[in-house]
Design brief:
The structure holds 2 protein chains of 2 kinds. Chain A is mainly α. Chain A has 2 domains: 65 residues; 153 residues, no CATH class. In chain A, 84% of the residues lie in helices and 0% in strands. Chain A is globular and about 50 Å long. The termini of chain A are far apart. Chain B is mostly helical. Chain B folds into 2 domains: 65 residues, no CATH class; 46 residues. Chain B is 76% helix and 0% strand. Chain B is built from 5 helices and no strands. In chain B, helix 1 packs across helix 2 and helix 1 packs across helix 3. The longest helix of chain B has 33 residues. Chain B is extended and about 50 Å long. The chains are: A mainly alpha, B mainly alpha. Chain A: It is found in: Cell membrane. Chain A: Keywords: Cell membrane, Hydrolase, Membrane, Transmembrane, Transmembrane helix. Chain A: GO terms for molecular function: hydrolase activity.
Chain lengths: 229, 123
């Protein structure tokens, strides 16, 4: 029974803090006030301040986590609505994502190797550009640590979403297709959530990129890791 | 109130597809996660009109609108790994960010470039 109330409290505070973070983002629109970033920081600070272990928070967090699976399934809906446009631009999306998967694994592995990190870290870091469940599976298969893989996935997701508007402006990637492919290939579902806020079409392309990327990275990672190490 | 009931009903349908996706993954021992299989399955069901779009529409819109919220609990998990990023480990953040930026620019630029070329040919 006590767990029920802890869980309820954790969910209500998470939702409340998320709504607050959205308000802050409306008042001060900036990449650094991305709601997921602000909300995560506030919750971490609260947990540290009141000495609440992560496992206790997750009694409630797990409920929200449970909705992540059906939410990924739900991404088929915008895909279906935008299907005719996506069909016309299937080739540029496919090639962009394939090259992105190659770049993501190769640079991740090589940079970590050059910086002197061991195989456990390299294996956990290599699938960072794909959505959490896939990245965990890939890291596990290679001999990395799935919880560590999740952390790198989160850095790629939040970091990419925060930096995306500046990067697209700077690199002159202006059309919805380039932006959708870029953010979906680099920052998976968190990037897709950001793209969805820009437009449904950009979000749908990001969804396609994210799914394709998950498939390409699953196949390419074992090959490229053994090639580069 | 009617709308909330609708949203819950739609999410239950999406949940069923998620379970089927997981089951397919387990049974066939696939590397693609169950949620992605569920998504592909839903897409096929919508295309073939076996599942009407009105059966999942509001629930799907509700979940997608709040997608960022659903990621927060996992993200807060960073809290257990602060020690990893102490000292030399802090470089890992830079490595992941740099690699992410490169992926974003190169994949985005490539698809934009191919897309533009295709448009030119049509003109």
């Amino acid at each position: 029974m006590i767990n029920f109330f802890i869980g309820l409290l954790a969910i209500l505070s998470t939702v409340g803090i998320y709504m607050l973070a959205k308000k802050i983002n409306e008042k001060v629109p900036s990449p650094f006030t991305l709601p997921i970033l602000i909300a995560t920081i506030i919750i971490i600070l609260l947990l540290l301040l009141f000495h609440i272990p992560y496992d206790t928070y997750m009694i409630g967090g797990e409920w929200l986590n449970q909705l992540l699976g059906p939410a990924v399934v739900a991404l088929a809906y915008p895909l279906y609505v935008q299907r005719n446009i996506i069909k016309q631009i299937a080739m540029p999306i496919f090639i962009g994502v394939l090259i992105g998967a190659f770049v993501g694994i190769s640079t991740g592995v090589l940079f970590a190797k050059w910086a002197g990190f061991g195989e456990l870290i390299i294996y956990s870091l290599s699938p960072k550009s794909v959505t959490t469940p896939v990245a965990m599976d890939i890291a596990d298969t290679l001999g990395g640590a799935p919880p560590l893989a999740v952390i790198f996935v989160m850095i790629a997701g939040i970091g990419g979403s925060v930096l995306s508007s500046v990067i697209f402006k700077w690199s002159r990637i202006t059309n919805y297709m380039g932006r959708g492919v870029g953010i979906g290939s680099a920052s998976h579902a968190i990037g897709t959530a950001k793209a969805m806020e820009n437009s449904q079409l950009e979000g749908s392309i990001s969804t396609v990129a994210m799914v394709l990327s998950a498939i390409f990275v699953s196949i390419l990672t074992p090959v490229l890791v053994s090639f580069w190490i | 109130m009617l709308n909330i009931g609708k949203i819950i009903f739609h999410i239950i349908i999406l949940y069923c597809l998620y379970f089927i996706g997981n089951w397919v993954q387990d049974t066939l021992d696939l590397f693609i996660p169950g949620s992605v299989i569920g998504m592909i399955l839903l897409f096929i069901l919508l295309l073939t009109n076996i599942l009407k779009v009105t059966w999942i529409e509001q629930g799907a819109q509700f979940l997608i609108k709040n997608l960022s919220l659903l990621f927060i609990p996992v993200t807060v998990g960073v809290i257990d790994y602060f020690s990893l990023f102490a000292g030399k480990g802090v470089r890992l953040i830079g490595i992941v960010l740099l690699s992410t930026v490169l992926v974003m620019i190169i994949s985005g630029a490539v698809s934009q470039w191919i897309g533009n070329r295709k448009d030119l040919k049509h003109d």
